[in-house]
Design a protein that fits this description.
Layout: H1 3-39, H2 43-56, H3 62-77, H4 81-94, H5 104-114, H6 118-150
Helix pairs in contact: 1-2, 2-3, 3-4, 4-5, 5-6
Length: about 150
């Protein structure tokens, strides 16, 4: 490597390394700002920052599911009921194995209930009860098969 090549390489490193570090900090900063705004019940600011974070974290598994779930909460607490329900459903569809997917039905039922839409809250809670019964039956079945296999 010639001296000129080394100098050019050093300049490139000096310019681009701090930029990549800044970009990573910016991603985290916007997510942290969204979380802080959510904790302060400033759901408009939280929604905006979650959306920006989602652009920067488009496919980060459970983090992406978490951000989308938080966006659904933001819509819920801003009174955007149908948008909130659609966002919860999107979490369940796009991230079925995430921790957030397990709470979708309860969140939908509570969203309708808190909005005073009892006509939709009732069936949503009924579906939640059915889902929980199914899970309980499955858990008992697994428990029974584990118990019998130990004997």
């Amino acid at each position: 490597m010639t001296v000129i090549q080394r100098i050019c390489f050093a300049i490139i490193l000096a310019v681009f390394l701090p930029l990549t570090s800044f970009a990573k900090q910016s991603n985290v900063r916007e997510f942290q700002q969204a979380e802080a705004a959510f904790q302060k019940y400033d759901f408009m600011i939280a929604e905006r920052n979650y959306q920006l974070a989602l652009i920067k974290f488009p496919d980060m598994g459970n983090l992406t599911a978490y951000i989308k779930n938080q966006l659904a909460y933001c819509k819920r607490y801003q009174g955007q009921i149908e948008e909130s329900v659609a966002a919860y459903e999107k979490v369940r569809k796009e991230h079925p194995d995430s921790p957030q997917a397990g709470n979708v039905q309860e969140n939908i039922a509570r969203t309708y209930y808190e909005a005073g839409n009892y006509a939709k809250a009732g069936p949503a809670f009924e579906k939640l009860a059915q889902d929980l019964e199914t899970e309980e039956v499955e858990a008992r079945s697994i428990s029974a098969s584990l118990t019998s296999s130990r004997m």
